[in-house]
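Quick check before the chapter quiz. The format below is the same one you will see on the exam, so make sure you can read both the input and the output lines.
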Amino acid sequence: MSGQQIARPPIVFGTDGWRARIADEYTFDNVRRCAEGVARYVVQQGTAAKGVMVGYDRRFASEYFAEAAAEVLLAFDIPVLFAASPIPTQMTSFEVVARGTATAIMITASHNPWTDNGFKVKSPSGSAAGPEILAVLERTIAERAGQEPPRRPFADGEAAGLVERIDPFEGYRAYLARTLDLDRLRAADVSVLVEPLYGSGAGWIPRLLAGGRILVREIHSERNPYFGGVNPEPIRPNIDEALGTLAAGGYDLGLLLDGDADRAGAADERGTFIHQLQVMGLLMYYLLEHRGLREPVVYTVNETSMVERLGARYGVPVYETSVGFKYVGPKMIETGAMMGGEESGGYGFGMHLPERDGIYADLLLLDLFLREREQGRWPVSRVVEHLHELAGPSFYLRSDVHLDRATYPQVKDRLWQELSGQPPATLDGDPIVRSVTLHTNDGFKWWTSDGSWLLIRFSGTEPLVRVYVEATSAERRDAMLRAGERLVRAAR
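Here is the expected output.
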């Protein structure tokens, strides 16, 4: 009926944007609603003339969802910088910083299953939009739920000069050269395997390192919205093919990226996965020992305790935040941090961008390994051993307990009540000596006497409960992980 309002579900931005299943909640209509929230926010801030960067990844129809978002911005006469092809998420952050745009939109679901897509927003600083911005967006979207967002055809906006198609590669390469000697990396006599997991980071590392002695081979570089049947997250078992290639010999190390290339990973010469918490420790050690930096470090509650130990060893302050770079980025800016990191493999750097950049992080890891080789620590597996000699053990594992999407909110509430009302007294027979409720009331963390910890957290982007463990031995890690899974399944 004419004038009848349409009932629409609320759109809630989780730890890293809004994500949903394509053709279910993730529709062109809802993408336009999100874009209208951004447009009205920019207009209210008086920054519309600065324009908005719009990027997209290689997921199903991402470029078309990006155009839909751009058409809403154009209806508000907001100039649009539009990616000429799929790009890594951090390139939207780079363009905000380089061109001074009001904000940026990125169409991506990061490492979510191939069935999903998502909508990320960047702050004017280039960091992930913080809770204060996202709250305004959510409120505006909710208030406009019964009305269609205005639209201006993309071709019309382009003809009017309001759309500029851009390729950020050359500008980004020049930006990297301020803080990283790419020529030195290109000249290295090493062989590197790169695994981009079919994502939008494909081709970037080989292009950045082209023209020297270094040998770089990339696998899974073609576009495949199915991601080969795995989630595009650079952890096992998703990367097992790359690990097998490394184990067969012929490479000095492996560098890994997730589906939108804002998360990093690595493996050694034997095909042994260097887990995300070890990468955090390696990058922090690199900045402290090889770059001589002494600014603070920011890390999430599910990150490694090596951060605290390295901070104490080198005399630098460390700050813990809730899970998500929407907390890490603002805290980095507030404290002048040299680095921020989260368990999922996202690392940002004060000398670079206050946002995750898997490509930059991977290149810093390569620089670390080459510098360590000059000091007699080689191969890469020896560098990892040296980290633990300095920072202590880190036997880490995460388990994802998947739940039904439709009933997830109810199950989450029930789990919260049961785990807060009857928390465990021991883990693997060891008494719990310390416990905390996560900052945003989305989980619990418990420590045992030897410093091992277990964290149970409700995902903000997927219908699942994550169980994390960092322990002092592999045996203790496995036992504590089983104990955590039993807690979740019993409450479920």
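If your answer matched, good. The two ends are 43 Å apart (CA to CA).
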